[in-house]
Each structure stands twice: as structure tokens, then as C-alpha cells.
Amino acid sequence: IGAPVTLNGQKAYGVFVSPGTGYRNNAVSGSAKADAAEGMYAVLDGTHYNGACCFDYGNAETNSHDTGNGHMEAIYFGTSTGWGTGSGSGPWIMADLENGLFSGVNSGLNSADPTITTRFTTAIIKGEPNQWAIKGGNSASGALSTYYSGIRPTASGYNPMSKEGAIILGIGGDNSNGAQGTF
Fold it and tell me: What's phi and psi for 73, nearest 5 deg?
């Protein structure tokens, strides 16, 4: 389904992801693997989301299965509360690092990660050895804010990371496809 918008008088289209759909490429070249540094960004519709797992964009497992903690690093956007949350009722920008959605150093509440519902929301996840960050904001105006910047989660498997390098859009690393959203 197209996601039409008008930019400077011209129609442009995003990607509308319904529950049960998503995209992946398990055989890319040049993506980050293991504990290599990477950064990713997405412009999302901050009004189209749900609480299911997982509306992600980023680096994931190459076999479409959960291969353990730290085997993916992706932007998550939605209201899932199974692992971590931000402040308010969501949606939040979080990182899906496999077997956990993180808004900060560990699962649970990071009150510095705000609910963000602007029509055009910029989401950024940056990662490097034992360091990662979440940034975001209104894509149409203002500056981006840092919602977390610090060490990797302290649970086993997240430091060092074991990223595999597949690219996903709208699904989780294990192909979980209950979420919805618009890129």
C-alpha cells in the first residue's frame, strides 16, 4: 500500500506496513557485522503504529530466526512494553537488539526517551563497540534530541555485539510481523 504525501507541491510515497507484512534481504554486502560500528536513520509516520513486535528497520539475522542476544541492531518504533519503554504512553523510538527492545542501558523505563507522535518523525540508532545512542525528533522542524547515549546493555550477549548484516524493514529479526507503521 502506498503512503502518499505532498512535498513542495509534488507527490512522494512512503512504505505503509500492515500487520503480517515486511521486507528483508539476508544476502546484502557492506553492512556492519559482529561489533562493527554502524548508524541508521528512518523518517516514520508518528501517527501510525501499534504495540506488536516489531516495526523495525536495520541490521538483523541472516537466517530469519532469533540467533540470540546482540545479533541485530535496528530502529524500533511503537508502543510495545514487553522489554522496555520510554516516558508517557508511547510511541517511542527504541533499539531492537534481539530478545529485547531497549530505550536505554537496560530493559525497563528510560524516562529520557519521550513519547513522540509528530506526523514526520526522524529516528536514529548509532552503535559501536560498547557504545550506542538513540536520537530523534520532528522531521519537519527543530533539532534532533538525544534520548540515550551510553554503554551497551549489561545483559549477556550485547557487548560485544554479534550483528549478522541482513537488512529488515517493518519486521523483527526473527520475522515477527505483527507490527504496523509507515516509513
Answer: -150, 105
96 belongs to the catalytic site: no
174 among known catalytic residues: yes
Taking only the tens place, the pLDDT of each residue in 103-160 is: 999 989 999 999 999 999 999 999 999 999 999 999 999 999 999 999 999 999 999 9
Taking alpha carbons only, the member of 59, 52, 45 closest to residue 21 is 52
Nearest-angstrom CA–CA distance, 63 and 3: 29
pLDDT at 1: 58
Task: State the catalytic residue, choosing from 73, 96, 98, 113.
Answer: 98
Cell digits for 12? 512522494
pLDDT digits (tens, 9 = 90+) for 23-36: 999 999 999 999 99
pTM tops 0.85: yes
- As a three-state string, the secondary structure of the chain is CEEEEEECCEEEEEEEECCCCCEEECCCCCCCCECCCEEEEEEECCCCCCCCCCCEEEEECCCCCCCCCCCCEEEEEECCCCCEECCCCCCEEEEECCCCEECCCCCEECCCCCCCCCCCEEEEEEEECCEEEEEEEECCCCCCEEEEEECCCCCCCCCCCCECCEEEECCCCCCCCCCCEEC
